[in-house]
Amino acid sequence: MDIDNTQESRLMARGIPSDDPAWGQVSAFLTAVESTYPNVGAVPLEASHLAAISRELRLLQAEPRPAQRKTMNDFLKLKTHRVLFGSLIAALVALTAGVGVAAAMGGGDPLKPLVPASQPEVTPTPEESPTAESTESEESQEVEDHSASADDTQEETDQSSQHESEDSNDDSDDQTADDSDEADDSDDSSEHAQPTNDSDDDSDEADDDSPGSDQSGDQSVDDEPGEH
Amino acid sequence: MAIGERFPLVLTAAAEGADWAWAELYRDLAPSLLRFLTSQGAADPEDCLGESFIQVVRHMSTFEGGETEFRTWVFRIARNRLIDTWRRDKRRPERSDEEVEIAADRVQQHSDPEPHSFQRAAVEEILAVLTPDQRAVLLLRYLHNFSIEETAAIVDKTEGAVRVLQHRAVKTLRRNLPTPSAEVWLATSNVTV
Questions:
Q1: CA–CA separation, A28 vs B82, rounded Å?
Q2: How far is Cα of residue B185 from the mean position of the Cα atoms in its chain?
């Protein structure tokens, strides 16, 4: 015979008599348990236990105690803490995933909308023309060198003009290098302007993916003859 | 005997290391804690009581709440200490049916038994058929008058699980009471059924 909730509550509240045909035995047994384990107190143990407590207190006071140190388990005991922590993790994961997706889709610099447009992009317009011209002049020079008829004066003229163009190229390359350095500085400053870990990752991805000033600057330097 | 309105003051003083506050907390909780540990079948309930209070001292800074919550928290520490003792000693209050019968026979063969020791041995033999969780829930609810919510906090289970454990404990007792041990404690307790 099973016991229902009402009878069970009465049993716990000592409401079922011992002569009850259904649950009297259990009620009598619980009464016996109560008398078997009386509330006798702990007076004989008090002195030794209080002494141990006092020793423990002194030990705790003696050791340096970091303020409000809590383990992660203690921190996560509160439901609100768990919710906040989980939300923070989810937001970081979503942000990282979003940046990764945007970069994979090849949409250019994913942080471009976030970066203030105060720093104009450095386009490698001035140095490319002299580079192309110098390349063409080199080629024309080589053709002339291999030609059967050699005109020394013309060649000297060509060489002098070439040297002049090279000088101007040096100046423009220096300026380009300076510009690229400034671009690097501006990139660094833009990173510091957004002091988050994600911005560092984003800027790294931007630097890798976009044909930015660094690459153009390096390219122009590498392509320029006589620079090495 | 509850501390009552002075509890916040006592708790604050105890957190600051005042010996008088710890003495007051000890006198308030130690008797019921000792009773609980003894009824749970602790091999050395006095030693377990002392260790429990040491743990309370160590983790006092993490406690937040009132007197009822503090009492629940201390009982939970005591039960955890008891479980650690069981694991360390590899001794559990569960016994096989054969061991129960042997112990019951030993009780019956005692030449000049004291009624109380007879009764205690018989009661402990019957309680041993319960699982540790059933025994804890039943005695926390019956002996110490903890609510379902407080009992759930002490044994670290849900309220539903506590109700199930209590229900099964009562059913198990009813099923096991007509035993030689039951007859012994019925005879010694002068209870007529």
A1: 28
A2: 20
Shortest Cα–Cα distance, A9 to chain B (Å): 10
Contact (Cβ atoms closer than 8 angstroms) between residue A42 and residue A49: yes
Interface with chain B: mutation pick from A4, A30, A49, highest number of B CBs within 10 Å: A49
**CATH 3.40.630.30 assigned to B97-188:** no
Interface contact A54, partner B, CB < 8 A: yes
Helices (H) and strands (E) in chain A, counts: 9, 0
Helices B97-109 and B180-188, axial angle in degrees (round to 10): 40
Confidence grade of residue A202 (pLDDT, cut at 50, 70, 90): very low
Of B17, B32, B177, the CB nearest to A25: B177
Backbone torsions φ then ψ of A60, nearest 5 degrees: -65, -35
- The alpha carbon of residue B73 is apart from the nearest alpha carbon of chain A, in Å, by 14
ipTM above 0.85, yes or no: no
Yes or no: domain B4-89 corresponds to CATH 1.20.1250.20: no
Asked if A175 reaches chain B (Cβ–Cβ under 8 Å), the answer is no
Report the interhelical angle of B19-39 vs B132-142 (nearest 10°). Answer: 120
> What residue spans define the domains of chain B?
4-89, 97-188
**Which segments in chain B show pLDDT lower than 50?**
104, 106-113, 180, 191-193
Cα-Cα-Cα-Cα dihedral sign, residues B9, B15, B19, B23: positive
| Total length of chain B | 193
This prediction's pTM: 0.56
Q: CA–CA separation, A36 vs B117, rounded Å?
A: 9
Of A29, A36, A45, the CB nearest to B49: A45
Alpha-carbon distance B32 to nearest alpha carbon in chain A (angstroms): 6
Whether the CB of B139 is below 8 Å from some CB of chain A: the reply is yes
CA-to-CA distance for A189 and A193, rounded, in angstroms? 6
Chain segment A21-68, per-residue pLDDT in tens:
778 888 989 999 999 998 888 888 899 999 999 999 999 888 765 555
Q: How many CB pairs under 8 A join A and B?
A: 127
Going by C-alpha positions, the residue among B132, B142, B128 that lies closest to residue B96 is B128
- Full 3-state SS string of B109-142: HCCCCCHHHHHHHHHHHHHCCCCHHHHHHHHHHH
